[in-house]
Each structure stands twice: as structure tokens, then as C-alpha cells.
Design goal:
single chain; alpha/beta; 7 helices; globular
């Protein structure tokens, strides 16, 4: 199903633990003003890819939304990686919860035979506590021609996360990600 043999999703504080695990490709999605280059020294330098935008779903002062160009570039990278041997793909963002998991879902869906549910299940198997960025996935839905199925599966997945991790609603409801909680709960 996947174009890589192994997938790791993590946050910045987990990177060092994966340096000796045979990672062949690293996709970093971090805030525009963050320097994390010292954390990547143990990974192959020619197979590192960097994307910079904030983990937000609506405009905020002094923050950079993920754009259609950002999502298209991530999908283009996924298509490029499909044409080469990828033994172990590591995708990370600041916490390993949202931008990285959205990216992993999107890359799974480059295979037109993979359903939205299968893509989320694959990511869930790797990172069972996560909250994929709905804006990134909304843009990917359009770019991949998923006709709203990815948007709906994102809502359903967020609902499963709220049911599985009771603390998430309290953490996210009052944050800039609150609209995702409202959608997940069908309110």
C-alpha cells in the first residue's frame, strides 16, 4: 500500500531517538522562524526536505497558514519519492501531532486505490494520538480529487480521537484549533 517500507511520525523532541533506526528520508514541517538543523545532523543530508508554515487552520497575526502551494509541494515530494526506494520515511513537525500526520495521510492518498479511511488507519497505527491539520487535508482533498471524502474522513477521525482521548476536547476547544472540535462533534 505505501511507497515506503517503514514510516515514523514524531516531534522535535523525539528526533534523536530515531537517528540510529535506518531512516532514509526526512520530511520536516516546522514554524518559519524555528532553527532545528542541529537536530537533523544524524540523518542523511541529501534526503532531508524542509517545509515552513505554522500549524494553524485560520489566519492569525504573525502566523503563516499552510497554503495550497505548501500542500501541492508536499504532494509533489510524495510523487517524487514514489519513484525512488524509500526504506524508512520519517515525517516530523514540532509536536508530531498535526502537520506531520496530515502529511502522512496525504502521501498515502497519492495511491488512488487507498481509501481515506485506510490512510488514516495507517497513520493511526504509527501515531495513535494525533490531530491532523484539517486545512492541509481540505486543500489536499481538492488537489487529489477526493470530492470531499478526505474532508469528511478528517472530521470522523477527529471524532474518534475525541472519543479515544478524553482530554483532547478540553485542550483543543479553547485553542485556535477549536473549530475542528466543533466540526468533529457535529455542532
Amino acid at each position: 500500500m505505501a511507497f515506503f517500507d517503514a514510516l515514523t511520525i514524531c516531534g522535535l523532541d523525539e528526533l534523536a531517538a530515531h537517528q540510529s533506526k535506518g531512516v532514509s528520508h526526512v520530511v520536516s514541517i516546522i514554524d518559519p522562524d524555528l532553527d532545528h538543523s542541529d537536530l537533523l545532523l544524524g540523518f542523511p543530508p541529501s534526503r532531508r526536505f524542509l517545509f515552513r508554515f505554522h500549524d494553524i487552520i485560520e489566519p492569525m497575526d504573525a502566523h503563516q497558514l499552510p497554503t495550497e502551494d505548501d500542500v501541492a509541494a508536499l504532494l509533489d515530494l510524495g510523487r517524487e519519492l514514489m519513484d525512488e526506494p524509500v526504506e524508512h520515511l520519517l515525517v516530523h513537525c514540532h509536536m508530531g501531532l498535526s502537520r506531520s500526520t496530515a502529511t502522512a495521510v496525504m502521501m498515502q492518498l497519492l495511491d488512488p486505490d487507498v481509501t481515506e479511511r485506510e490512510a488514516f488507519d495507517q497513520v493511526d497505527a504509527v501515531r495513535p494520538r494525533c490531530w491532523p491539520n484539517s486545512l492541509m487535508l481540505q486543500v489536499a482533498d481538492e488537489l487529489l480529487g477526493r470530492e470531499g471524502r478526505l474532508i469528511e474522513e478528517t472530521r470522523l477521525y477527529h471524532r474518534r480521537m475525541l472519543d479515544r482521548h478524553s482530554d483532547l476536547q478540553g485542550i483543543l476547544a479553547g485553542s485556535p484549533r477549536g473549530p475542528e472540535v466543533v466540526r468533529a462533534l457535529g455542532q
